Amino acid sequence: RATFNNPEGVLRNGNTGRVRLQKKYAQALLVPQLATLEMQDKIFVYTVGKENKVVQQPITVIGKSGANYLVSKGLNAGDRIVYKGIDLLQDGQKITPQALSRDSINSL
Length: 108
Known about the structure:
conserved putative lor/sdh protein from methanococcus maripaludis s2 fold; single chain; 5-stranded antiparallel β-sheet
């Protein structure tokens, strides 16, 4: 239940609706949902490690923002993650990463 100002009488008693609340997070990273995979109720990304080998990394998701997850644990700023082809990867596999431009990243 909620109470709203309704000076124009648009809302009627008994109506239902969806409410979106905005919340600010001090320490969270945005990760495109397309760059994640879910297994047994856990969410993972592939990070690119030494010698360009991928490591399956569990992440803690604390919310969503559009098509992105807000991640509080499991990644650090500057970590490289795989965005495409994650369904074809295996832990420890060597890849040839291709960096995305800032414009490409902003449009994800």
